[in-house]
Design a protein that fits this description.
The complex is a heterodimer of chains A (194) and B (138). Chain A is built from 7 helices and no strands. The longest helix of chain A is centred in the C-terminal third of the chain and has 28 residues. By secondary structure, chain B is α+β, with helices and mostly antiparallel strands. Chain B has a 4-stranded antiparallel β-sheet, with helices on one face. In chain B, strand 1 and strand 2 form a beta hairpin. The chains are: A mainly alpha (194), B alpha+beta (138). Chains A and B meet through helix 2, helix 3, helix 5 and helix 6 of A and helix 3, helix 4, helix 5 and strand 3 of B.
């Protein structure tokens, strides 16, 4: 209940910011076109498994954006703090995949310099490149990129959770709570920088 | 089960080159022809991130593009315009083909020496680029 109340409050907050519509407009950071069915099932459908795997792969984009922006703006700690949390998000999504028999071994999650920002899927590379292009303009713009990433992520996780079994929903709720915290951090940093 | 053989690799390699050629020439009609619709729309969304960032009204078009031809045109025009401004010259080299199950495959390749992969799925008697087909179907 507390989480629901918190989420609703954040939703209102985002609407005030004019981001409410944006939240529902773009699925660039997660579930994309295929929607899960509305019925709760004990086993995942093929499409739901695809969604799990896609989200797992996509979590790397946000982490790598924050690592790169953090290196650009070394005096701003928000990126560094959140990138650690994003790594935990990746691992949570990975555990979820493996629980449902989805092989994740083919996805390179290395944080070594040579691999950060190297997305194996072209469309995710496009997304990463745009985030960096926007973020390199100034610290304020970079923080706004972070805000948009988190707002989008929250919406995508909500949509991806539809029709999923309770264990998947719990993980996605946890990830969403993390994203809400990140959103708060970016909002505060934006207020400081503005 | 489709055989992972040289004929399939050749076919998917051709699709991959057409994908990049279409991006280089900003020919979104051609691009769409080698992609699953959902993957095409997903790509448009990702390539439109900066437009959403700068223009709040753009998100309305993104939201409507799958059912509204005018909205799709607005998004495609913006993406096409961006593509035309790019410095081109991507060098593609296919490395291997991997089976992802009965109707899926991944083409491993390099893009300007960066390691990449493209997922494909088979439906309606055709192989198409499908970004959601990365999971191996058992």
């Amino acid at each position: 209940m507390k989480n629901n109340t918190q989420t609703n409050n954040r939703r209102d907050f985002m609407k005030i910011l004019g981001l409410g519509a944006l939240v529902s407009a773009s699925s660039a950071f997660a579930s994309g076109g295929r929607r899960a069915s509305s019925s709760v099932t004990a086993e995942l459908s093929e499409e739901q498994k695809d969604t799990l795997f896609f989200i797992f792969q996509e979590e790397k984009v946000a982490r790598d954006v924050y690592i790169t922006l953090g290196k650009m703006y070394t005096n701003e700690s928000t990126f560094a703090n959140i990138q650690i949390s994003e790594q935990e998000h990746i691992l949570s999504a990975q555990v979820l995949c493996e629980r449902y028999g989805i092989d994740t071994s083919g996805v390179n999650l290395s944080q070594e310099d040579d691999f950060v920002g190297q997305l194996e899927l072209h469309e995710m590379q496009e997304l990463y490149n745009q985030c960096i292009e926007l973020g390199q303009v100034s610290l304020l713009e970079a923080l706004k990129v972070g805000r948009l990433i988190e707002v989008t992520d929250i919406d995508d996780l909500e949509r991806a959770a539809e029709g999923m079994p309770s264990d998947v929903v719990r993980v996605y709720e946890s990830l969403k709570d993390g994203s809400l915290n990140h959103l708060d951090a970016f909002e505060k940093a934006i207020a400081r920088e503005s | 089960m489709y055989p992972i053989d040289t004929a399939l690799e050749k076919k998917l390699t051709e699709s991959l080159h057409l994908y990049y050629d279409s991006l280089r020439s900003a020919d979104l009609k051609s691009l769409r022809s080698v992609m699953e619709d959902e993957s095409y729309f997903s790509l448009l969304e990702m390539m439109s991130f900066k437009h959403v960032f700068h223009d709040a009204s753009f998100k309305v078009s993104l939201e409507a593009m799958q059912s509204d031809a005018l909205a799709l045109k607005k998004v495609e025009d913006a993406v096409s315009s961006d593509l035309k401004k790019r410095v081109q010259g991507v060098k593609i080299k296919v490395r291997s083909l991997e089976s992802k199950g009965s109707d899926r495959a991944a083409l491993h390749y390099s893009e300007n020496d960066n390691i990449k992969k493209m997922y494909f799925s088979y439906s309606e008697e055709n192989w198409k680029i499908d970004s959601r087909a990365g999971r191996k179907k058992l």
